[in-house]
Design goal:
Chain lengths: 564, 291
């Protein structure tokens, strides 16, 4: 039979598009980046509150020498859950939430590159959180967020808590790995016309660094916890010294992931305040290229410094020296950022709105965490300070002062865009001052606790010297900090219904998310404007002003057309 | 906002006027390496204070001087290349200075010194290890093995017999007895999980990692007790894994070792007698032949 070549008949193929379902089903099945972003933000904030409660119980236990409020077992479970929660279930997914909501809006895209993968990431993260928190009904993990071996092997902790921790790592790691790829592809391919690499917002640069770090570092962690899992359950000996396994290999693998993770937690916060500081100083960012380059530099150097967590292990001197020098090097791009932020404020016209307060609070607190970090990088000094409260103080200045203040700046800055309503400025300022004072009262004194010889992860201490007094100061501070967080929770609760209507651009901001309505429509933009600088919204506002002046002088009343 | 950090600092100053070491600097005074670490720390602290005051001051000034007021117009600048290169080089110079300071002090922190004139006579040379160990220039140091066990420290006073691995050497738990003016090298090991040996006044900490051997040293000039505790999470009893180093005169140390040997021999003899009794009764015989 002869085949006949047929020219295809041109035709229009139409798919039926159902409107997105509302209510619970709508939220459970959504692939809209904005809804997924909100889910991420709300879920991670709940984990933040849980992790905070764990911290408060620990501070109560330490509020008195030789206290017996909780047992050693429960105390170990508390700090393990606290660290794990804050890192894997709060800061990382919180940044993913901001990224999900604002990456497409800021680059002028209508969604993420892979919307269904995006939903998968979120639900895997939820699964990880559930599996970890389900363990509190049986036996929670108690080997620290570092899950140190051999303590975490089945010989010493046979209960299922460690396995729950491993499952949580797997779920959240796959979630973040996929999320990272999604961000990178979205940013690479879906930018608005005219948005060259030199014109993408600095928050986007920080999300690029965040995603690269996650994609490169998480497979290492996955490999390590898989080995731990088979050691625990299938009789392998990766970390069993009695059978030729290596304990130090766990520390190397964990920290090879662990240090890049530090920058995963803090770089997006830097990105957020690199957006807010110019807006509230009414000035362009000082040294855009330097800030973008230092972000990528920190991300790169972050892979070379992991041994600084292992200065007291049996490790050759030359390796210690390398880790010290590479850690010192990170101080340079970090310093560049801080100077550029101060340069942004310099000669500006600074409006003290709540997002600015939290942004400036980040800078002020991160300076302290950065300085103590450089001190800890000197390994002979670290031999005294390693694993003491000095390190606890340092890392909390970095994570609370850095990540959490950045996140709160983001919440106050973007809440109007997400909900269409403003947060209360008065409550915002109360929250800021309580948190700022709380952080310093809680953590400044902890430097002295460490210098005084108090190791971290101890459930009790003797009543000698100033230990009890210093611990009491710290405990009082933790409640001030908690009060500050609660004021923001109340503020959000109140403003969802009664906040002032925001309009599309309440801050007179610089980036494209403010070009659309608040909250944005499902498709984000009907028309995507052409981008001509790092501050497309400023260009658009100026264009509008210019045309309305021309219109006024010409006496014409023709409608404004925003340049597309 | 700078104010409250300063305020907290001031409160600390008022409440603890005499406690400088342990509040603003690491513990020291027991051993030269601890003193060198404290010295290096102080050098860093002074630089840190200058940077802290400078940068926080600039931030506070900017916030105060450039707050929004009627008629103020923000200066629309995008950067200043010369300034940016300047502070990059400045930051780099500071870390170079810190690296140089570390290298200058490294030797005196890490490498043991010779024992002092009043130290233990260890000229027979048996009491030190040579493989991989740190050792003083003259090669003579008292070597003690520190073994981390959940949740107690065990010390083996090596070199008192010719057996390898300290078999038969005298040992003690929790309290380590050492002679003054004598360089003591610690061979730190663990038999279960990771621990960390730390007596703050005697220098930095070292992890006791199962499967590895770690080393540190100290030389105590004043007789006395120096306390510390395990500083790496090792389980539920971590907080109670405490340690104490008691420095005594060399003569008393020799006496103590002799006494300890006698106690241990006595205990061994008793145990042997007890085992024999158990064997005669027929109880526990199976377990005892298959330890």
């Amino acid at each position: 039979m002869a085949t006949v070549a047929v020219n295809p008949v041109p035709q229009v193929v139409a798919h039926r598009v159902d409107p997105a379902p509302n209510g619970l089903v709508g939220w459970l099945t959504t692939t809209d980046h904005k809804r997924i972003g909100i889910l991420y933000l709300v879920t991670s904030f709940i984990f933040f509150l849980l992790g905070g409660v764990e911290a408060l119980i620990m501070r109560l236990q330490l509020g008195e020498a030789n206290n017996t409020l909780v047992t050693p077992e429960v105390y170990n479970q508390l700090f393990t859950m606290h660290g794990t929660t804050m890192i894997f279930l709060f800061v990382v997914p919180m940044m993913a939430g901001f990224g999900n909501y604002f990456v497409p809006l800021m680059i002028g895209a209508r969604d993420m590159a892979f919307p269904r993968l995006n939903a998968l990431s979120y639900w895997l993260f939820v699964a990880g959180g559930l599996v970890l928190y389900a363990s509190i009904f049986w036996s929670p993990p108690e080997a620290g967020w570092i899950s140190t071996v051999p303590l975490a092997t089945s010989t010493y902790l046979p209960s299922g808590g460690e396995d729950a921790w491993i499952y949580m790592i797997h779920f959240t790691s796959i979630a973040s790995f996929l999320g990272g790829i999604n961000f990178l592809v979205t940013i690479k391919n879906m930018r608005a016309p005219g948005m060259t690499w030199g014109r993408i917002p600095l928050f986007i640069w920080s999300i690029i660094a965040y995603s690269l770090l996650l994609v490169l570092a998480l497979p290492i962690l996955e490999a390590a916890v898989t080995m731990l899992f088979t050691d625990r359950n299938f009789g392998t000996h990766f970390f069993n010294p009695a059978e030729g396994g290596s304990v130090l290999m766990w520390q190397d693998l964990f920290w090879f992931f662990g240090h890049p993770e530090v920058y995963v937690l803090v770089l997006p916060a830097f990105g957020i305040i690199s957006e807010t500081l110019p807006v509230f100083s009414r000035k362009p960012i000082f040294g855009y290229k330097a800030i973008a380059a230092s972000t990528m530099m920190i991300a790169f150097l972050g892979f070379l410094v992991w041994v600084h967590h292992m200065f007291t292990t049996p490790t050759p001197l030359v390796v210690l020296i390398f880790a010290m020098i590479s850690s010192f090097l990170i101080a340079v791009p970090t310093g560049i950022k801080i100077f550029n932020w101060i340069g942004t404020l310099w000669q500006g016209s600074i409006e003290f709105r709540t997002p600015l307060l939290f942004s400036v609070g980040l800078v002020a607190l991160f300076i302290i965490g950065g300085i103590s970090g450089v001190m800890l990088a000197m390994f002979p000094v670290d031999w005294q300070l390693n694993d003491t409260y000095f390190v606890v103080a340092h890392l909390h200045y970095v994570f609370v002062g850095g990540s959490v203040f950045g996140i709160f700046a983001g919440i106050y800055y973007w809440f109007p865009k997400i909900t269409g309503r403003m947060l209360s400025e008065a409550l915002g300022k109360w929250s800021f001052w309580l948190m700022f004072i709380g952080v310093n009262v809680t953590f400044l004194i902890q430097h002295s606790l460490g210098l005084d010889g108090m190791p971290r992860r101890v459930y009790e201490y003797p009543n000698v010297g100033h230990l009890q007094l210093y611990n009491q100061i710290s405990t009082v501070g933790s409640w001030i900090l908690a009060a500050g967080v609660l004021v923001t929770v109340a503020n959000i609760w109140r403003s969802l219904k009664r906040g002032v209507i925001a309009g599309s651009d309440p801050w007179k901001a610089n980036t494209l998310e403010w070009f659309t309505t608040s909250p944005p429509p499902v498709n984000n933009f009907d028309e995507i404007p052409r981008v001509r600088s790092v501050e497309p919204m400023k260009d658009i506002r100026q264009e509008i002003e210019r045309r309305s002046r021309e219109g006024a002088t010409a006496g014409a009343s023709k409608p404004l057309h925003v340049p597309a | 906002m700078l104010l409250c950090s300063v305020l907290v600092l001031a409160v600390v100053f008022v409440l603890a006027p005499s406690a400088f070491a342990g509040t603003f600097t690491p513990e020291q005074g027991g051993s030269p390496n601890a003193n060198h670490i404290a010295g290096l720390y102080k050098f860093t602290l002074y630089i840190a204070i200058v940077i802290f005051v400078g940068v926080e001051g600039a931030l506070a000034y900017a916030l105060f001087a450039f707050r929004a007021r009627k008629g103020r117009v923000a200066k629309q600048m995008h950067g200043n290349t010369r300034l940016e290169i300047g502070w990059t080089v400045g930051a780099a110079l500071i870390v170079v200075a810190l690296a140089v300071a570390t290298f200058i002090d490294l030797h005196s922190v890490r490498d043991p010194v010779n024992s002092g004139p009043g130290g233990l006579d260890i000229s027979d040379g048996v009491q030190y290890e040579t493989t991989g160990a740190i050792k003083p220039p003259n090669g003579r140091a008292l070597t003690i093995q520190v073994n981390g066990i959940q949740y107690v420290w065990r010390y083996t006073y090596l070199g008192n017999t010719s057996n390898p691995d300290g078999l038969g050497d005298p040992y003690s738990y929790y309290q380590m007895v050492v002679p003054t003016n004598t360089t003591v090298v610690l061979k730190v090991v663990s038999q279960d999980v990771v621990h960390s040996w730390w007596i703050p006044q005697l220098g930095g900490k070292v992890q006791a990692v199962p499967g590895y051997t770690n080393y540190t040293w100290f030389k105590i000039s004043k007789p006395g007790n120096y306390k510390g505790q395990c500083s790496f999470l090792c389980g539920r009893g971590h907080a109670r894994m405490i340690a104490e180093v008691t420095a005594v005169s060399p003569a008393r140390y020799v006496q103590w070792i002799k006494q300890q040997k006698a106690y241990l021999a006595q205990a061994d003899a008793q145990a042997e007698k007890f085992r024999a009794e158990l064997g005669n009764q027929g109880a526990g015989a199976v377990e005892l032949t298959n330890p």
